[in-house]
Amino acid sequence: MNWYEKLSEYFPIEEMKSKEHMDALLKDKHNVYRKDEGPKHVLMYVETESFVFVDYLFVSSASRGEGLGKKLLTQLKEKGKPILLEVEPVNYEDTDTEKRLRFYARENFHHASRIGYSRRSLATGEQTDLEILFWSPEDADEESVYDAMKMTYEEIHTYKDDEFYGESYDPIEKVLTYSTEGKTNILKPFASVGA
């Protein structure tokens, strides 16, 4: 099974980029869009001068409990830049969402509670609400996380969208919002776990 098939099996269709889109990012934006692949994992990420964005992190279920996810995140942390990622809120019918949030809480990620993020999938037409998590070596503020997410959306997520999907993603102001009021911290129930 190739790296794209592994990602497609694990991530819901509404969160997946097309193979053509990801191949184009790896080719055209190879200076920032990267793939780290092994027999038990696939990590797709963006690295700029000021931050790292984890686009997809897949660890094979056969290797769960071996610390592979932690090792991959540690390698990213060693770059000394804030790390951002998108995550689904807890869905109690999908136990993976809770495991994922517990994992990121253990890895000292924070919930960007002032950032609203709702993206329409061009594959399904569904609106998907996601939350932004971030880790920072020097306590990045949510405004800088918001700016990094805007850049990621405009430069990576919507790259050549017309060409790959036959239509454009929604404009950024419809997708990302920044509020002075924070939402409930989705990591709080997991904060004491493993602390």
Topology:
Layout (H helix, E strand, L loop, with lengths): L2 H8 L8 H10 L4 E6 L2 E7 L4 E8 L8 H10 L5 E5 L7 H12 L3 E2 L3 E6 L6 E9 L6 H16 L3 H5 L6 H4 E3 L17
Parallel strand pairs: 3-4
Antiparallel strand pairs: 1-2, 2-3, 4-7, 5-7, 6-7, 6-8
Organism: Sporosarcina aquimarina
Protein name: GNAT family N-acetyltransferase
Structure description:
This protein has 195 residues and is an alpha+beta fold. It has 7 helices and 8 strands, in the order ααβββαβαβββαααβ. The protein has helices at 3-10, 19-28, 68-77, 95-106, 142-157, 161-165, 172-175; strands at 33-38, 41-47, 52-59, 83-87, 110-111, 115-120, 127-135, 176-178. Strands 1, 2, 3, 4, 5, 6, 7 and 8 form an 8-stranded mixed sheet that branches. The termini are far apart. The mean pLDDT is 92.
